[in-house]
Amino acid sequence: MLEALIHSLECVAILSVLAAVGYFTAKLNWYDAAARSLIARLVTFVSLPAYLYTSVMEGVTREDLIGFAGPMVLPFVSIWSCFLVSRIVVRAAKIDRMHSGIFSSAFTATNNMFIGLPVSLALFGTDSVVPTLLYFFANTTFFWTMGNYLEAVDGAEATHGPVVPVFSLTTLKRVFSPPLIGFLGAIVMILLGLSLPEWLMTSAKYLAGVSTPMALIFIGIMIQAIGLRNIRINKDLAWVFAGRFLICPTVCLALCLVWPDLDPLFMKVYVIQAALPCITQIAVLAKFHHADVKFATTAVASTTVFSAATLPVWMILMTAVI
């Protein structure tokens, strides 16, 4: 138990140092809006897809893929169960209807790529890449369908405008984001028995190497931009905290414990992914749909900061239970 505590604290310290680099360099005014956008684009469109592709190609075999059918279902069941809980909370706790859709997205969807992948690598090593990606697939599918739709409903509520459909070409493009395409591309290559030329694979590895530090530096930049002083915890936000750090990981843990023949590593990764802060895109979508941007931004910032305290607790619990 003590060893697990020390390891968890060390991992959080590593993540905190990298995020602090972004935070304090941002305080020195190193980044304007264009620079922040550039970093996010480099991570999302270049380094993360390269990382996911190379990691899967080197760590997964065709035989492994056959065994992923069962474990792949669990994140979907967990995420949609938590979504149903969020809708119950909306009614029971009388969440403000002007941001009830944002609330459900914040309650349910996690920051699976920007924070989840670096956290998994720090806690569990490279073997955690595949279960992290399986959770990512379920998480991003939920967010860009139901989450996107509910935030659009919030925007329509605020502006008295029309509500966009749940399924559209735009939604499809967002679900199949560059990181997911990198992951699926590797799966296709493995199934076909193909591989990239060595020089191209090496180039992809170099690009992949910057993904984790760049993603965490970006998180620090965004926390500084939002401002720690602007975080105010009200009733609705307190329920977001309960969802992110208590209800969702508990639901996921319960499912993991009853799921047949689930690898212990998959269990640990899934629960940690379920205990991460809110997905950052809730703020982007809130602005796009003219919904409650302040609530979305505050949810992202506050849960990101608070996760530094909750992740070690869940890591220790995982070590004790699994």
From TrEMBL:
It is a multi-pass membrane protein. One of its GO terms (biological process) is transmembrane transport. It comes from the Bacteria. Pfam families: Mem_trans (PF03547). InterPro entries: Mem_transp_PIN-like, Na+/solute_symporter_sf. It is found in: Cell membrane. GO terms for cellular component: plasma membrane. Keywords: Cell membrane, Membrane, Transmembrane, Transmembrane helix, Transport. Its main location: membrane. The chain crosses the membrane at residues 6-26, 38-56, 68-90, 102-124, 175-194, 206-226, 238-258, 270-289, 295-317. Belongs to the auxin efflux carrier (TC 2.A.69) family. PANTHER family: AUXIN EFFLUX CARRIER FAMILY PROTEIN (PTHR36838), SLR1864 PROTEIN (PTHR36838:SF1). This is Transporter, auxin efflux carrier family protein. It comes from Sutterella parvirubra YIT 11816.
